[in-house]
Structures are given as structure tokens and as C-alpha cells.
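Saturday, quiet lab. Running sequence design on the C-alpha cells for the scaffold JK sent over.
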């Protein structure tokens, strides 16, 4: 014979359980308060509902208060997320308009190397500037080198991608000529060559 499991599922959290209890309490209290008397009489609940009307009303108020608090909390969380996202968008848009040559050169590396993720020194001032402006996002994979210092993987954040284009990054339109490529190589961040040398020594 199969045994009946009376224990609650482990996946149900306390918040979910309270919400279910509040919803059931609201439904049952509403039915007991506003259901027509003939229906209550059929279920032999008419006298009980009259005698305990105050407690049923209190239960309804408690259920509504709990559900209302959850709704208000949800709306506040969504409003905070929206404002934070708006603030990040404003910071990115402002920073993109004020990029200096070193920051442009760093961002061009993603296009020149054709990679969405690049390894960069964490302590580099340009990296930190773009990270604080939410243009770069750190992906982890931190490594420590005695010469170069700590490095990690970075990518251009999803929010920043819509603001970056060839015009912003000073990339020529169409295919790059040899002269264009030589100019871009000269302006590459210094740590690109340093990291390549460090990897050779590590290997």
C-alpha cells in the first residue's frame, strides 16, 4: 500500500504558503459574508456565520491587507528597477558622448578582434572608468600575474551596445584599408601587447 505524504513539498516557500493562505482566507471570508442566506442554510452555516461575523470580517481584512502589502511591495520593486535602469541608461549615454581616445581605443578592440569577451587588466584606469559607467561588464575568470597584475574577462554591456557604432568609435565605414589598420594598431591600448607577452611567458 502507498503511504499518503502529509508533509508539505520542500519547494513551497513560506512566502508562497502565506500567499495561498491569504487567498483562500479572502475567498472563504467573502463567501461567508456575502453569500445569500438560503445557500448558507443549505450548508448549515447560516447561524455560524452570524455568530462569528466579526471574526470572519477580521480574517477578510487581514487577508486583504497582506495581499495589498505584497502588491505594493511588487510595484515599489518594479519602480526601483525602472529608475535604476533609467539612471544606468543616462550614465551610459552621457559617457559615450564624452569618450576620450584611450577609451575609444579600448572599445575598438572588441571590433578589431571580433570577440564579444576580452581579457583585460582589472586595475587599468580606462577599464575602471568604462566599468563604472556601465559600458563594460565584468564576466569573472580572474587571473593573477606577477608582472601584469590581476586580469579578468570583460564584455560590452547589453545596454551600452545600442549606443556604440562606427561613428562613435571613430572606425572607418566599410572595409578597413592598410593605412586604417596601421593607424588603429598604433592606437591600441598598451596592455594588449603586455598581456600577449605575459601569456607567452606563462606558457
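Result came back. Writing it out in full:
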Amino acid at each position: 500500500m502507498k503511504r499518503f505524504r502529509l508533509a508539505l513539498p520542500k519547494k513551497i516557500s513560506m512566502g508562497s504558503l502565506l500567499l495561498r493562505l491569504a487567498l483562500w482566507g479572502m475567498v472563504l471570508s467573502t463567501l461567508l459574508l456575502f453569500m445569500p442566506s438560503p445557500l448558507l442554510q443549505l450548508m448549515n452555516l447560516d447561524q455560524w456565520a452570524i455568530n462569528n461575523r466579526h471574526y470572519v470580517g477580521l480574517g477578510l481584512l487581514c487577508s486583504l491587507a497582506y495581499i495589498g502589502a505584497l502588491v505594493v511591495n511588487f510595484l515599489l520593486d518594479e519602480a526601483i528597477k525602472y529608475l535604476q535602469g533609467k539612471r544606468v541608461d543616462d550614465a551610459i549615454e552621457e559617457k559615450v558622448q564624452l569618450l576620450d581616445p584611450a577609451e575609444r581605443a579600448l572599445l575598438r578592440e572588441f571590433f578589431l578582434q571580433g570577440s564579444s569577451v576580452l581579457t583585460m587588466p582589472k586595475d587599468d584606469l580606462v577599464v575602471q572608468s568604462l566599468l563604472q559607467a556601465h559600458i563594460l561588464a565584468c564576466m569573472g575568470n580572474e587571473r593573477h600575474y606577477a608582472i601584469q597584475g590581476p586580469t579578468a574577462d570583460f564584455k560590452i554591456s547589453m545596454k551600452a551596445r545600442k549606443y556604440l557604432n562606427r561613428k562613435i568609435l571613430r572606425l572607418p565605414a566599410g572595409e578597413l584599408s592598410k593605412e586604417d589598420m596601421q593607424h588603429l594598431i598604433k592606437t591600441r591600448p598598451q596592455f594588449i601587447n603586455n598581456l600577449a607577452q605575459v601569456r607567452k611567458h606563462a606558457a
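Notes for JK: The CA atoms of residues 38 and 146 lie 85 Å apart. The chain has nine helices and three strands. Ask whether to fix the surface positions before the next round.
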